[in-house]
Specification:
Blueprint: H1 4-11, H2 16-21, H3 26-30, H4 32-44, H5 54-60, E1 94-99, E2 110-115, H6 139-146, H7 153-165, H8 170-176, H9 187-205, H10 219-233, H11 237-286, H12 292-298, H13 334-347, H14 357-400, H15 421-436, H16 442-461
Helix pairs in contact: 9-10, 11-14, 13-14
């Protein structure tokens, strides 16, 4: 007879109270579905331990709580590429069949696997067999147009036969050329003969009025090119080092030349700026006061930006202080400002004078002229330094004996003795400025003549 335990086992019931008492309660029968769901949910959920990666945990456990397999097996789980799903069509048959290569002329027979539907077709790689079209000439054409005293017909036929065999690979043709039976020829000679015959045949066989692309081979140029390459290859390490040194020196000379040209342009700008400013001031002094504003409107002398200081114009509406016109612009560097203050202190001029209309104008003009003088002194110092370097270099070359010595004294046009080395230096400086710079203006030429005459007068007055 079945007991209560058997009934509970059949109904899958459990619990502390039922197991202890051994009887079926009302709660066990009513809540049996909930207990089943709790049991199933508890059995299906697994918690991964902390610190363990998901992939490692998947190797240990699965949803069905199966043990990992001992041997590798194909499953649908995991990171795998899906296999190609082959259709239910019939597989195309392949056949072991013979074939011949059209590039070979010995009739060799080979075998390979190929689809049965392609039986009897040409070899698919035969389309890559490209051959050079070497022209063919007749006996009559050779005697009329292609005859050459340096080449016999048998030698020409041998050359064209090798050209067909080796597809115009002239290095191989030169290697296979029969030098014992025929005259010894170079690669350039073989190329020149071949292309000369091709050009002749193209001219003969071309229809009148057609544009031909005739190949031309310059054998002399090819020989010179190979000779130069051979010389370049046979250079010694000393020659290579000397060439690199000369290239570096050439680059240095070019950079020095560019710097010198730039300095001479700046110097010429300063000289023209000084000339234009002096001419403008003379014109302003000579002209009447009533016509001054008209001249300012009509005449605009071309003064470069590097001429002294360019002060800003305060033409905006509103009240402005006159002392603002005395403020130096930001384009003037600190070095020029310090030099300007030092020159003003040497002249005994106040650095901040009373800003009346006349004083502001004259003070700005004075500072502009002082900055221009400072720039001219710098340019003069640079020219003098370069002249001294050239003089030392000239003396070193004279000592080496490559050029003649430099005479320290000159001769006067009247036949008197030379005026000394200083005048020679001045003339050399003038010549350097004349050669390197731009053409001189009339005012600069007059200034130079007056300076030379004053220097000669001083030297004559000396005891």
């Amino acid at each position: 007879m079945a007991t209560g335990a058997d009934v509970r086992d059949i109904l899958e019931l459990g619990g502390v109270e039922s197991e202890n008492t051994g009887t079926i309660n009302k709660k066990d029968i009513i809540n049996s579905d909930k207990k089943k769901s709790k049991k199933s949910s508890e059995t299906l959920t697994f918690k991964r331990p902390e610190g363990m990666h998901r992939e490692v945990y998947a190797l240990l456990y699965s949803d069905k709580k199966d043990a990992p397999p001992l041997l590798p097996s194909d499953t649908t789980q995991g990171y795998r590429t899906v296999k190609a799903k082959l259709g239910s069509k019939k597989v195309r048959p392949w056949k072991w069949m013979p074939f011949t290569n059209p590039a070979r002329k010995d009739g060799a027979m080979f075998y390979h696997w190929r689809r049965a539907a392609e039986e009897g077709k040409d070899y698919p790689f035969a389309r890559f067999n490209k051959t050079v079209q070497v022209p063919v000439y007749s006996e009559q054409e050779y005697q009329m147009y292609l005859h050459d005293d340096a080449w016999t017909k048998a030698e020409t036929d041998h050359l064209f036969d090798l050209a067909r065999r080796f597809d115009l690979r002239f290095v191989v043709i030169h290697d296979r050329y029969d030098h014992q039976q025929f005259k010894k020829r170079s690669v350039e000679d073989l190329k020149e003969r071949y292309y000369h015959i091709c050009a002749k045949l193209a001219n003969i066989r071309a229809a009148p009025g057609t544009d031909l692309k005739i190949p031309v081979f310059d054998a002399g140029h090819e020989r010179r090119r190979k000779e130069q390459l051979e010389r370049l290859y046979n250079r010694t390490p000393e020659q290579v080092a000397e060439e690199e040194y000369l290239i570096q020196e050439l680059r240095k000379i070019e950079t020095r030349k560019k710097e010198r040209e730039k300095r001479t342009q700046d110097l010429q700008k300063l000289i023209t700026a000084a000339d234009t400013t002096t001419e403008q001031r003379r014109a302003e002094r000579k002209a009447p006061k009533k016509k001054l504003p008209q001249k300012k409107e009509t005449e605009k002398p071309a003064v470069p930006e590097t001429a002294g200081i360019k002060f800003p114009d305060f033409k905006s509406a509103g009240v402005t202080l006159r002392s603002q016109r005395m403020k130096l612009p930001s384009s003037v560097g600190q070095k020029k400002i310090k030099a300007l203050e030092q020159m003003l202190m040497e002249l005994g001029v106040d650095l901040n004078p009373m800003p009346t209309e006349e004083i502001v104008q004259m003070f700005n003009e004075l500072r502009s002229d002082l900055v221009l003088l400072y720039e001219l002194k710098q340019a003069f110092a640079n020219c003098e330094y370069e002249l001294q370097m050239l003089r030392h270099r000239y003396e070193a070359l004279a000592k080496a004996g490559s050029i003649g010595p430099l005479s320290a004294e000159g001769t006067h046009p009247d036949g008197q003795a030379g005026l000394g080395i200083e005048e020679g230096k001045g003339d050399a400086k003038d010549q350097i400025i004349d050669v390197v710079g731009a053409p001189l203006t009339p005012n600069s030429r007059k200034r130079r003549e007056s300076a030379s005459s004053s220097s000669s007068i001083r030297k004559v007055k000396k005891p």
